[in-house]
Structures are given as C-alpha cells and as structure tokens.
Amino acid sequence: MASTINWNNLDKLESFKKLLSLKNSVSVAKELQGENGAVRVSKYSVPMGGGLTYNYAAKQVNEQLLSVFQQIADEDQLLEKFRALYNGEVVNLGEKRMVLHQLTRGQLGEAVNADGTDKRDFYETQRKNIAAFADKVHSGKILNEKGEKYTTVCQIGIGGSDLGPRAIYLALENWAKAKGTFMMDAHFISNVDPDDAASVLASIDLSKTIFVLVSKSGTTLETLTNQSFVNEYLKNAGLDPSKHMIAVTSETSPLAKSPDYLAAFFMDDYIGGRYSSTSAVGGAILSLAFGPKAFEDFLKGAAEEDKLSVEKDVTKNAALLDALIGVYERNVQEYPSTAVLPYSQALSRFPAHLQQLDMESNGKSVNRFGEKIDYVTGPVIFGEPGTNGQHSFYQLLHQGTNIIPLQFIAYKNNQTGKDVVIQGSTSQAKLGANVAAQIVAFACGKSDSNPNKFFAGERPSSLIYGDSVTPESIGALLAHFENKVMFQGFLWNVNSFDQEGVQLGKTLAKSVLAGETSGALKAYADLLIK
Amino acid sequence: MASTINWNNLDKLESFKKLLSLKNSVSVAKELQGENGAVRVSKYSVPMGGGLTYNYAAKQVNEQLLSVFQQIADEDQLLEKFRALYNGEVVNLGEKRMVLHQLTRGQLGEAVNADGTDKRDFYETQRKNIAAFADKVHSGKILNEKGEKYTTVCQIGIGGSDLGPRAIYLALENWAKAKGTFMMDAHFISNVDPDDAASVLASIDLSKTIFVLVSKSGTTLETLTNQSFVNEYLKNAGLDPSKHMIAVTSETSPLAKSPDYLAAFFMDDYIGGRYSSTSAVGGAILSLAFGPKAFEDFLKGAAEEDKLSVEKDVTKNAALLDALIGVYERNVQEYPSTAVLPYSQALSRFPAHLQQLDMESNGKSVNRFGEKIDYVTGPVIFGEPGTNGQHSFYQLLHQGTNIIPLQFIAYKNNQTGKDVVIQGSTSQAKLGANVAAQIVAFACGKSDSNPNKFFAGERPSSLIYGDSVTPESIGALLAHFENKVMFQGFLWNVNSFDQEGVQLGKTLAKSVLAGETSGALKAYADLLIK
C-alpha cells in the first residue's frame, strides 16, 4: 500500500505551479456584488457533520481555482494519504508511530491492530469503562470517604490534555445546564505557576472532587508537580488521595500500575496530545461533567465529519477544501496569520485549542523526511469571540496594512434559551446580523472620500454555521479542524504529529534547575529565581 | 508650541534610512555566547516603574542600532510629541480631541483645561468620588433593599470597558485574597451573545450585586442590550434596578442624568476606551473589588512608568526603546506578528488587553493626515500564559518558517504564597527556569545532525520582570505598553487614538436588523438569523 504514495514537497507539484500563477486572480468584492453575490453565497457551501455547513463564498476562489485545488488534491494523493493514515500506516515518521485519533470515534477503513489488540476495540473499551465509571459516580455507587456524592471534577493536565477538553467543556456547559444533563462542575489545573493550582483548589470542595490526572507518558513535569500540589492539599484536608484521583495515561506509563488511583483509563502513543479530545483524555472529564451520552454524541459528530472528509471531490469535502484554501492564502497570497472568530461565548477557548492544534502540528521547517523546505508552513492562529473582538482587534483586520484571512463560526440559536428584545431584535439576531455584516464589510469594503473611513475590502473569510453548539456539532467542528490541519500537513509534506520544537526549552530548563548553567542562561536565571 | 513639531512619515526620516541599512546586522546567538552573554544580560536593562525592569539582551540590537534608535527618536521628536500630548494638544486629529489618559494618574506637564475645568482635578475628583462610594459599600453605609451588604460587582461593558479592567481584576484577584484586601467578587458581561449575560447572572446572587454599566457615549448597542437583559432579571427577582446599578459614562451622555442609577462616575472624550483602565472605567470595579487603596497604588505604578517615559535617552526609557525595537522588527526585519508571553497565571487575560491596545491603536493604513502610507504598521499581537503556551504554539515559535518576536513577562514570587517542592525545586523556581531557558533556546538555538531536532535560533525576545504582580507593578506594566504603543503611533505617523475601522461593520449590522439588505448581505443574514 504505502509504496503507491509519493510524499512530495508542495513546490514539486505541477498543479501547485498552476496555483502560483493564480495569485490575486479573484476579487471577492466583485464576486459578492449584487444579486450574483446571493447566488454565490448559496452555491459556495459544503455540508459538514453535526448539522454544520462550511460556506466559502467570501473566500478568494472561483471555478478555476477550485479546479486547480482538485488537481492538487489528486496529484498530491491527499485522500490516499488520509486512507493510509486511518488504515494504520506509520505516517508519524519521526516518532515511528501510527496516527489513530479518528479511530477513537469510528472506523473509517480496515481494522488496525497494534500492541496485540484491535485499536478500535481498545478505544471503545476505554470509552465504555469511562461511561461505567461515570455512571457509578453519578448514581452514587462510588462515593467519597464520608459516603457523599462527588460533585466536582478537576483535570490536571497541560497542552493537549488541557486546551481541547477545556474548550469543549466550556462549549457545552450552558448546553448541559439548559438540557438538564449537567452532572458535575469541572475545573482545570495546568500551569506550573503555583497560583493556578492554589486558586482552583481554594474555590472547590476538595472532599467532593475527583481529580483527573492526564499524562500520556506519566512524566510531564508540570502535571506531576501539580499532582503533588493537589495531593498535599488533599492530605492536609484529611482526605485520601487515592479516593480522589483517577489517571488517564498510556498502559506503559508508571501511572498505569499505581494503586494511587480510584481508576485508570488508557490512551496510547497513536493519539497525539492535541488530537486527544475524543480519546480518554477528553472522555473522562466530559463524561463525568455531562454524562456518557453527551460524550458519545460528541464522538458521533466527529465521526460524521470524518466520514465526509474521505470524499474526493474538493467541493464536497469541507476539511479538504478549507485546507487547500488555507495553503493558497499562505503560500500564494502570502498571508502570515489567520483569525478564528466564533460568534458564541461558549466557544471562548476554542481559538486557543485551534492555536495549539494548528501551530504545533504544522509550525515546521523540515519535511517529513527531515529535509529543509523552501516554502512557508503553518500560519499564526489567534482569535477571540465576537462581538467582543469587534470592539478590540478588528480595527487592524479592517484597516491594517496586512490582510488576515478570517474563519467565522456562528449559530442560529443560543444555548440557554434566554434572550431579550431590544430595538426590535433579540440579542441572538444581533449576533447573527453582526456576522453577516462583518463578512460583507471585510470582503466588499467601502469607498469614502475621507481616507480614514475608507475600507479596501478584499479580506477573505469563510463561515462555519449551524443551529447551535451541541455535543454533535462541537464534535464535528473539532474534527473539521483536525482534518484540515492533517490535509495541510500532507500538502506541506511535514510531519504534523510530532513536536520536536518543544524539547530544547525543556532540556535547558532542567539544566537551570540542576544549577548546571553559565553565561547568559545563568544570568537570566539569576534575575528570575530567588 | 505645536508649530515646532514635524509630523513626518517614518520613511521620510533620514535616520530611518540608516536603520533600513542595518537589516539582519545583529546575531543574537553570537551576542549571547559565553561570558559576554552574561555581561550583555546585565547591561541591556532599563528600570521601569513599579519595581519592574525591561531587559532587551535577547533582542537584535547592539550599540550601533541603539545609536540609530536615538537618532530616530531625536529626528522624529518623539519626546516633544509626547510632551505636546500630555500638555493637551489635540493629537487625536481625526476626532479633534486631546488625549489625556496619562492625566488620570499624574501630572506630567502643564495644567490642561477643558470643558471649563482643570482635567487633572476632574479625574482626581472622579477617583475620590469612587473611593468614597466604595468605602460606603464596604462599610455597609450603602446597603441593598433588604439592608444587606453588597458582596459582588459586575461590569457591563465591551472592548476597552471590558478587556483592560477584566485583565487587571484577574491580575490582582489572588494578590488581594492573599493580602486580605479582597472586598467583592467581580464578574463581567460583555458579549451581545445572550448566553454571556445569562450564564453570569445564573452564577451570582443578584440581590447582593452592584452592576457597573460602562459606556462613554451611552449608546454602545451591546452594552445597552445587556443592561436591559440585567434589568429584566433584576425586576423578575423583585429587585429595584436603581439600587443595583451604577454608571460610568461621560457627563454629556444620556446615562449621566438618569435617575436609574445608584451613582454615576465620569470619564470624558479625552480617554479612549482601550486607554481607560486608569480612569473611572477601571476605577469603579477595581475600587469596589479591592478597595480604593489598591486602585490608588495601581495608578501610582502607572504614574511612575509615565515619568520614566519622558526620558530622552532611549537606553533609559523602556517604553521608547521597546517601541523603536518593535518598529525595527516590523519595518526592517519584516516580522508580521508579536507574541506576549506572561509566565504568571494572573496575567491570563493581559495578552487580550494588549491585543486590543496595540492592534486597535496602530492597525491603520493612513497617516494622521489621512494620507495612505507606504510601510506596514501595527503587527498581530497574540499570546497565552507560560508554561501553558510551551505545550501549545511554541512549536511554531521555535521551528516555524517565520520569526515571531517575543515579549516575556515574569516575576520572582507568586501571589498566593503557596508552593510545593518537587524534584528539588519549587513550582515558582520551575516557572523562572523555564523563562530563562526559553529566552536562550529562542535566541541561541541548537545545532543537531537530526534536522528535526535542529533549532535555528535568532528569535529575538525581551523580558519584563519584577518581584510579583501587585497593583503598582501591574499599573506600571499597563502604562509601559500604552506608552510603547503611543510612541509607535508617532513613528508610523498614524492616529493611535481613533478606530474608524470598526464603523462599517456596525452600519451594515444595523441595516441587516432593519431588514434593509439585498444580495450577499441578505443571503448571509438569512443563513444566520431565524
């Protein structure tokens, strides 16, 4: 199988050379003019999973570009590469690992066997074990030392063990409260700054809290440090840490065999941290917070989106199309960053998750074979919820000297069902009106004799929209970006699944703590450490 | 006075032409090598206000560049421009307004009179009125309908009425709790997404809450909408809104004369939203949350930093030097974005405040006279606290294809006083060790025969450090960036104090809500509004 795939650098593709010749070939402002604009909005639309839709009418594309995108997808064998990945080929070459996060939510291809087991069975078994554990906690079959129910869950993890699960928890908190499926309050401790743990611990009832210790290797310094911090608090409160902590780790980690946990659930080396929200890493805290059914629905939404991501036609595969548009914007239009703008307070931390997902996956300068590449890769990703951002950094997006592509995310309905009519419209309608207005303002601009009030327009955006933020829709949204980032990694020919760039800092920090430093490093350490 | 200042575009300066010739003239890796590196760390250091220090040893500068920076500062009359600003010249040309936020915390120059009053007196009077009000609330001289003390304060505002005050509140929450000066819990409602208000209101005891309605004009749609939302909740709870809301607004706004408020405090048109944290906009909520003394100390730190910002020698004026280095990085080195990396969980939202401050101030394409400019202006600003970011987007910072300048912020001590020793070091020491390690890793890189583990280095950073996050130090930190952004605005010759780029979206949103749309705008609105 593997031998039929050519892993080529982007600039070696004939079709990419065509794409380069199409720089600045589309005026979004013109395309969206008049009634043709409305036709374009309805046409440039791709169904996603979880009831979402990807709309790219305000992107700098036309039929010619779409046709070149298709040629690139075909020439670069993007779908074959995806198939190889989900069928268990070792695509994480640097670390010599398979990449199986899609398998945590469905089976797209053949059975994948590793470590003496069918991996889909393994992930499903973990999910079911978590569900059974959560049910027992919720029903009171598992109780604290005093025979009371646990009310609170607190994740101890950092990076992918924090950002994704936290973003999803916040996305669903109000949904669950409104639906009546809210089970337990969730909190998160991540930073090695001791004030992070101290302030979280001061705000919760320790005696009714289950901590979820998440570390694949069982060796993450921040996480182990925070575990000790928490254990000390538990002991000082006269509580038994083994009654208050579960572990999510790999079966080979030191944590796996420890008697210090109420329970342990497993992931493995084929799930990267930033791709782990649909594994036990997200599963434990989300199942405890919202019940196992909500977590299952979340996986269902992700699986739906995965299935759509195997489609060969670029106009029917939102993740693939989004990836190709992104590469056009990065490598042809030369835009260095992208803003993610969810018009939903529930998604307040979703941009931070995407920031890790995208920048850690594709912020690379060598290809998958370790050869230096001659084009730019991953952009800077940043964002904040709208309408808040409109009163903040949008000034630069509208009138700054660089064009920054935009990803809007919006919903027809809010989660709480509460709303108010002011000046003839609900708040939710105002939110939607602002999204529509911003897309058109960015794309079409406005001429004005006062140059301060002149808007050049031609600032491309796409829109992902749906009915509301639910487990299914947030699952699909998550999977969309995971798959987009994967396709972009294929296009740039980088390994999207390692992160060697984080190692040097770790090594140097260790030598500082060991007192083995000199020169500038010692001088900096002396400024900062008592 | 004004006539002696030349407002020139950056590319018209002779000294800037020199700067252009110094592209890539400094290797940070070389400069930081060996024991000379330690000397450089101790030398390239500028005292700031509030006990902070600005260290630029890991920036791409040397004596030659510093000398050109000085020439630019002199030729472009940066200090004269600052003097004109604080002495009340109308530097916000577009809106024909003075710019007086420094006057909310001290008197740098001459008395400034406007609206029939001395403006320093006006701001001080507001601060004292707020202090007196807060003291009455804290002492129980002002009570709720049932004769109970208020326990909670909730800001209703957006943009500058939200981001700055929220960032400062979060920065000082644990400090105040540890110090015993914590008075009232604070919450914030900003987004027009109704779930924002609904979830905040569901989490607080309305009967004991004072809402702070903040809108300079009294016409901000999001804020007025959220006010109505809150009023409805108050009425439904049998509470009298006028016993639960104070206003912070301008004296000429419709809110100023309303009997609907427990009290009203004033700012004016000379304080831009993103520069308003030291005015009544930050004053009301911070004085209620932490007591008037903490707010006074916060102003003291800002005033200290302002005083240092009038220094002509670029090596003694941290804000000025930071501004010049930033312009070198943006316009000579051509770096399109900057990351802000506070190693303190307390500063979790400080990057979001700086994002507004910087991007809204200097994200402009025309100069202060409305003429199109031929160079790039404000960069994209983004950031998250460390060490969290290390496990997220730092991969791209270390090994991505673009260089992104970095701003580290770190403290020797944490706020809560809680800590734990693991593997021979405290968490706080680990935090400091990581900062030192990251600075050196970014600057010096590491050669490796495995290209995956190769770090090119030459990624410049500066470090602001101090003893701990206190009212004084956070005040100085805030003022540093305000003044840096101001100096950069002078250099780019833009008006840093207006935000015309936010208007078009507002106008289009209004026409959507009025149903006065067609074409693409209507098509988008139809997708998003029920």
Automatic annotation (TrEMBL), chains A, B:
Top EC group: isomerase
Catalysed reaction equations from the record: alpha-D-glucose 6-phosphate = beta-D-fructose 6-phosphate
Entry keyword Cytoplasm: yes
Compartment annotation: Cytoplasm
UniProt-listed Enzyme Commission number(s): 5.3.1.9
Active site: 360, 391, 506
A molecular function (GO) term: glucose-6-phosphate isomerase activity
Keywords recorded for this protein, A-Z: Cytoplasm, Gluconeogenesis, Glycolysis, Isomerase
Pathway linked to the protein: Carbohydrate degradation; glycolysis; D-glyceraldehyde 3-phosphate and glycerone phosphate from D-glucose: step 2/4; Carbohydrate biosynthesis; gluconeogenesis
Keyword match Isomerase: yes
Gene Ontology biological process terms from the UniProt entry: gluconeogenesis; glucose 6-phosphate metabolic process; glycolytic process
Broad class of where this protein is predominantly found: cytoplasm
Pfam families cross-referenced by the UniProt entry: PGI (PF00342)
GO cellular component: cytosol
UniProt record similarity statement: Belongs to the GPI family.
Function: Catalyzes the reversible isomerization of glucose-6-phosphate to fructose-6-phosphate.
Protein name as catalogued: Glucose-6-phosphate isomerase
Protein's organism: Treponema peruense
Lineage of origin: Bacteria, Pseudomonadati, Spirochaetota, Spirochaetia, Spirochaetales
